[in-house]
Design a protein that fits this description.
Elements (H helix, E strand, L loop, with lengths): L1 H129 L4 H147 L2 E8 L8 E4 L9 E6 L4 E3 L7 E3 L4 E6 L1 E3 L5 H16 L3 E8 L5 H6 L5 H16 L4 E13 L2 E4 L29 E3 L2 H14 L2 E2 L7 E2 L2 E12 L5 E11 L6 H4 L3 H25 L11 H5 L9 E9 L5 H15 L6
Parallel strand pairs: 1-7, 1-16, 8-15, 8-16
Antiparallel strand pairs: 2-3, 3-6, 4-5, 9-10, 9-11, 9-14, 12-13, 14-15
Helix pairs in contact: 1-2, 3-5
């Protein structure tokens, strides 16, 4: 069973480690996805910027080409217009010149022709008149006419040359104007080049900067692409690793479920065997503990099971020897015969036994309460016999040791699918009244759980119930209860318990699948009040009433046990508060253990004998089914 639990714990540790790795990977995945999304967003922004720059570059290129084209078109139009204007002017000038020359020539020719015709007419007239004139006059006239004709010819030639020179001047002027226009066109070209060059340079610089930025964006896009690819690969690896971890986790969960099932089966079988063992030992068992006293003790001897029959241990005590003078005798004393008494118990602890030795036996019944049975363990005996030391000693009493075992066990049981919680009540029965040893006028700061307990006990209504969570809390609880418990001085003891104290523990199981709770068992740890004979305690007044109430409740406890022994149809649980509250642990399949504590002092022989007789009565009783 412990190996299975250990193996289960190892598997749970492996599972916790895997869950830690899975959690670590799962916590990294959102960061990686966020980083991946950021890189994707950044890449998208870069692509968008790149597209914007590319579009802007294309637009600038288009604008540049458009402007150049417009300028070229304007230049071509201007050149065409200028050439056309020049050609038109040249043609116009040529046409004007030709027309002027033609007109001049024609006019001069016409004038010449007219004059020639006039001269011819004159010659004809003169020829016709020759007959009338003499040769001399004719010669003179002819000579004069020739001179006039030559003069006219020279004049006409001079005029003609002057007109030609004027035309040449006009042509020279037109040529000069053409050169001026050509120079103007060249200047315009230079001006256009001068004005467009900064724009072209700016456009070229912008294009170079954009190309560089484009290269940078492309490099960044490539880098982001590589990072994105790397992250995708890393994400895929992490996802594969996560899937593998989930598969390992599923496998471990399956193995843990199998272990849990095996542990549940083993636990069920263990409970069955443990209960069978307890039933074989007896549902009512009586242990005896002898308080160590060094001087003035009566003789006693213990025989182990191997020396007796019926699996019982035997305690034999001898009445202390004493001498008493006979009433009618003169002076010779008579020695009283020694009586020996034998009692059988399930277990006897001698003076050398410690609380740890006792708890080895008690722990089995504590386990029975955790297994779902009602258990009652109470200490019985005279005042000063060690009852409270056995039950409530702060370091190793049955209460702190039982609670330590229960805390450890419920932690282990919680691994089987249910949660367990412990709730406790601590009260005393003084006379026939119940007093709470936890709650009082001053708030006791020992309940660390502020929630109301989910259970109630109708037998102890009004008694505060608290959740038990730690040994430190139990120690504080015991110290507080010890201060509140009713004690008084008697002839038998300076500090005598005048009440029965009951520490009642309710074991509650919670299902992890629901909020329902179930009380599966109850452990009652009872420190009975000191059992004293009136002749020994010699009490009076209030102490007498207390002693009578104590003895009455103890007698009622004996009556209940006797009724159970005889299997009576009626068990008088209601005869006292003590038996009524303990009724669930005194019948049916409950487990009950009584510790009879005795002192071996000679002065306590009769009280010890009375306690042993009461315990022997209980030891011969069987529980009614």
């Amino acid at each position: 069973m412990e190996d299975i639990v250990k193996l289960k714990h190892d598997k749970q540790n492996d599972l916790s480690s895997l869950n830690g790795e899975i959690w670590k990977v799962q916590t990294q995945i959102p960061d990686m996805e966020l980083k991946l999304d950021e890189l994707a967003l950044k890449a998208s922004i870069v692509r968008s910027d790149f597209q914007t720059l590319e579009d802007k570059l294309k637009n600038l290129e288009a604008v540049k080409n458009h402007k150049i084209q417009r300028m070229n078109d304007s230049l071509e139009v201007f050149k065409s217009t200028l050439d056309r204007s020049f050609d038109e002017k040249v043609a116009h000038l040529s046409q004007t010149y030709d027309e002027k020359v033609t007109n001049i020539i024609n006019s001069k020719h016409l004038e010449f022709k007219e004059k020639e015709r006039s001269f011819s007419d004159k010659i004809t007239i003169l020829k016709n008149s020759l007959a009338d004139y003499s040769d001399k006059i004719l010669e003179e006239s002819k000579s004069k006419i020739s001179k006039d004709a030559e003069t006219e010819h020279i004049y006409l030639e001079t005029e003609h040359n002057r007109n030609i020179a004027a035309i040449k001047d006009d042509i020279a002027n037109l040529h000069q104007e053409c050169q001026d226009l050509t120079r103007e066109i060249r200047d315009l070209h230079k001006k256009i080049d001068t004005q467009m060059q900064p724009v072209l340079n700016e456009l070229n610089s912008t294009m170079i900067a954009l190309n560089r930025k484009l290269d940078s964006v492309q490099d960044e896009e490539s880098s982001l692409g590589r990072q994105l690819k790397k992250l995708n690969n890393s994400k895929e690896e992490e996802c594969n690793k996560l899937l593998q971890l989930k598969e390992d986790c599923r496998q471990y969960n399956h193995e843990i479920e199998q272990f849990n099932q095996a542990i549940k089966e083993e636990e069920t079988y263990r409970r069955f065997l443990h209960n069978k063992l307890q039933e074989m030992k007896g549902n009512i068992r009586v242990f005896c503990r002898i308080k160590p006293d060094r001087e003035g003790v009566f003789d006693h001897a213990i025989q182990s099971m191997s020396c007796t029959s019926g699996l019982k241990e035997t305690l034999s005590i001898s009445e202390p020897t004493s001498t008493k003078p006979l009433k009618k005798a003169s002076s010779s004393p008579v020695k009283k015969s020694v009586k020996t008494y034998s009692f059988f118990f399930d277990k006897i602890f001698d003076e050398n036994s410690s609380n740890a030795d006792i708890f080895e036996e008690i722990s089995q019944l504590v386990q029975s309460s955790l297994d779902g049975f009602n258990v009652c363990i109470f200490t019985y005996g005279q005042t000063g016999s060690g009852k409270t030391f056995t039950m409530s000693n702060a370091n190793d009493g049955m209460i702190p040791r039982s609670m330590d075992q229960m805390f450890q066990k419920i932690d282990l049981l919680s691994t089987l699918g249910n949660d367990y919680q412990l709730y406790g009540q601590f009260f005393e029965i003084y006379g026939e009244s119940i007093r709470d040893l936890i709650d009082d006028d001053h708030q006791l700061s020992i309940n660390d759980d502020s929630d109301d307990p989910p259970i109630s006990n109708s037998d102890t209504i009004g008694i505060k119930m608290i959740r038990l969570i730690s040994l430190q809390q139990i120690e504080s609880l015991l110290a507080h209860a010890t201060k509140k418990r009713a004690t008084a001085a008697t002839m038998a003891n300076d500090v005598s318990s005048r009440s029965h104290s009951i520490f009642k523990v309710h074991i509650t199981k919670y299902s992890k699948n629901s909020s329902e709770s179930t009380v599966i068992g109850t452990l009652n740890l009872v420190d009975l009040a000191g059992s004293e004979r009136l002749s020994h305690s010699q009490v009076t007044g209030l102490r007498l009433k207390e002693t009578l109430a104590i003895n009455k409740s103890l007698s009622a406890l004996g009556d209940v046990i006797a009724s159970l022994k005889s299997k009576s149809s009626h068990v008088p649980y209601r005869n006292s508060k003590l038996t009524y509250i303990l009724k669930d642990s005194l019948g049916g399949d409950s487990k009950t253990l009584m510790f009879v504590n005795i002192s071996c002092l000679n002065s306590h022989f009769n009280e010890s004998l009375s306690s042993l007789r009461f315990a022997s009565k209980v030891n011969t009783t069987t529980l009614k089914k």
